[in-house]
Amino acid sequence: MTTRTVTTLGILIAVTVVISLFFHFPVPMTHGYINLCDAGIFIAALLFGRRGGAIVGGASGLLLDLLLGYSQYMFFSLIVHGLEGWIAGQLGAGQRKGRQALALSLACIVMVVGYFISDSIMYTMAAGIAGVPTNIVQAVVGAVIAVLIVAQVKQHVKTEFTA
């Protein structure tokens, strides 16, 4: 991994955390919150592959929980968002839009199931079930934002290097 890649991933972690800090909405029935961190994870995954997705996913999820006062979720977020980013990057990086949509869909399912399990372990199965709809919304919004941003980034990079 080059210094440039490490630096870029660090910036993506910071941007993901800052944006998610400003746009997070507590969901009392689940003891959690909705945020935009999935967008940053998917952007990293689609641009940098499985390693970038896993690094940005795990680090940003853990840091968000720490900074927002949800420390009980830190370990789960490290694993769940890290795996989400790894899957999105493994299956979607450098692929056509149809393959990226499939990769992001599978990654979204992993995140939703991961937090269902987390909530069920920490609280009750009812809390896990209550979190499913909000986690689906968070994942889908993140995927849509990521696809739009990645398309613009790729177009900009293509224009920069061909001009």
TrEMBL record:
Signal peptide: none annotated. InterPro entries: ECF_substrate-spec-like. Gene3D superfamilies: 1.10.1760.20. Keywords: Membrane, Transmembrane, Transmembrane helix. The chain crosses the membrane at residues 6-25, 70-89, 101-117, 123-151. The keyword Plastid does not apply. It holds the Pfam family ECF-ribofla_trS. The keyword Ion transport does not apply. This is ECF transporter S component. It comes from Lactiplantibacillus modestisalitolerans. The lineage of its organism: Bacteria, Bacillati, Bacillota, Bacilli, Lactobacillales.
